[in-house]
């Protein structure tokens, strides 16, 4: 379901893999990185692909939740912090990965923990764009991105019968 004010941007597994690999190519030029911190849960999937491409084997997570209801952001909850060894020098040489940046509130919290890390997301909306150093595709602020792990195959009525656009 998309809110009436929103455009839908559905992403297939193939597309997501291609975009994550494209991000890895860009990050390869920005690195090297000694560790990767993924922002759970959405950052787990691109983190696996990027860590494989860049051969990063030290993986940490920072656990943050905020969108408890569909498309509505609530208060940020830091469920799990980052290991002190990675925070020691402000996160220099550390790569932070998330699936997307929307308002930027989630990554703004991570910036307070790792001010000198490199920030990357596959998709970015204009408001959150200043929070990432590297991203692949920008979508408008009124677009909702649907990830492949949140979707399933369903019947599509013919366009002539009023299929949703
Ligand atoms: O830039 P923001 O407006 O803060 O939103 C971006 C965050 O929202 C989603 O996470 P969510 O809190 O829904 O949790 P999840 O990753 O566990 O799905 C997404 O994965 C980003 O982490
Ligand atoms: N799946 C998904 N989660 C989000 N969290 C914040 N914005 C979005 C979005 O566009 N799509
Ligand atoms: Mg998330």
Automatic annotation (TrEMBL):
A Gene Ontology cellular component where this protein is annotated is: plasma membrane
Specify which residues bind GMP according to the UniProt entry for this protein: 102-106, 144-145
What does the record say about its membrane topology?
Answer: Peripheral membrane protein
Which Enzyme Commission numbers does its entry carry? 2.4.2.22
**The keyword Magnesium is assigned to this record:** yes
Q: Which reaction does it catalyse?
A: XMP + diphosphate = xanthine + 5-phospho-alpha-D-ribose 1-diphosphate; GMP + diphosphate = guanine + 5-phospho-alpha-D-ribose 1-diphosphate; IMP + diphosphate = hypoxanthine + 5-phospho-alpha-D-ribose 1-diphosphate
What this protein needs as a cofactor is: Mg(2+)
One GO molecular-function annotation for this sequence?
magnesium ion binding
- Binding positions for xanthine per the UniProt entry: 102, 145
Phosphoribosyltransferase domain location, by residue? 12-155
Listed InterPro entries: PRTase-like, PRTase_dom, Xanthine_Guanine_PRibTrfase
Subcellular locations according to the entry: Cell membrane
Q: Which Pfam families match?
A: Pribosyltran (PF00156)
Q: Does the keyword 4Fe-4S apply?
A: no
Q: Which residues bind guanine?
A: 102, 145
**Oligomeric form and interacting partners:** Homotetramer.
NCBIfam families annotated for this entry? PRK09177.1 (NF006613)
Q: Its family? A: Belongs to the purine/pyrimidine phosphoribosyltransferase family. XGPT subfamily.
Q: What is this protein called?
A: Xanthine-guanine phosphoribosyltransferase
